[in-house]
Design goal:
Chains A, B: Keywords: Monooxygenase, Oxidoreductase. Chains A, B: This is Antibiotic biosynthesis monooxygenase family protein. Chains A, B: It is an enzyme of class 1 (oxidoreductase). Chains A, B: One of its GO terms (molecular function) is monooxygenase activity. The structure is a homodimer of 105-residue chains. Chain A has 105 residues and is of the alpha+beta class. Chain A has 3 helices and 4 strands, in the order βαββααβ. The first copy, chain A, has one domain: Alpha-Beta Plaits (2-Layer Sandwich), CATH 3.30.70.100. Chain A has a 4-stranded antiparallel β-sheet. In chain A, α1 packs antiparallel against α3. The interface between A and B is large, with 41 and 41 residues. β4 of chain A pairs antiparallel with β4 of chain B, so a sheet runs across the interface.
């Protein structure tokens, strides 16, 4: 779904990845990370799609919220497993959302 | 693929969309827009994935480059067709990429 975010400014973390062929534990951990992120202070929403390349964008109130999530214990473990098992490569971009606009039929 | 972007700061445009069932002309126009965007001054790269929700992130040197692409003639027509035919809803977010980091096996 399209995340319902507040008026800018707020932050976006764009996480773009290519997976390895290793699937074991990936979906479970991925779902758990979404649940845990939702419980973090300053979390605003998330959008995710994969076909070949995977793109997950999470939205946050400020840089502190992003930093706290990056250092959350279960998430640290998942990041380590991600590098060891699930991801061939990834890029994370921390962005200030300055402006947004939308369309709905 | 993961876009090869320069050191921050640069800009990202996150375009998140849900499609209608109307497919006619979508793939052709979509491919053409990627080709045309690549020819724009200030274009840095693009990442795209769809499963249900579609996420396309394009990267740009600055806000002027984004504005020029938004107003490019063929792109204006594609945006109009998008609203009339292909998209049930979308959200566009203009973001300043402040920091990035990556991982490669």
């Amino acid at each position: 779904m399209i995340a319902k975010t507040p008026r800018p400014p707020y932050y976006a973390v764009i996480f773009t990845s290519l997976k390895t062929n290793e699937e074991e534990g990936y979906n479970e951990t991925s779902s758990l990370m979404v649940e845990l992120a939702e419980q973090q202070a300053g979390y605003l929403g998330q959008e995710s799609a994969r076909d070949g390349v995977g793109i997950t964008v999470s939205y946050w109130e400020n840089l502190d919220a992003i930093k706290n999530w990056k250092l959350q214990t279960d998430h640290l473990l998942a990041q380590k497993q991600g590098r060891e098992q699930w991801y061939a490569c990834y890029k994370t971009r921390i962005c200030l959302v300055e402006r947004d606009y939308g369309f709905e039929k």
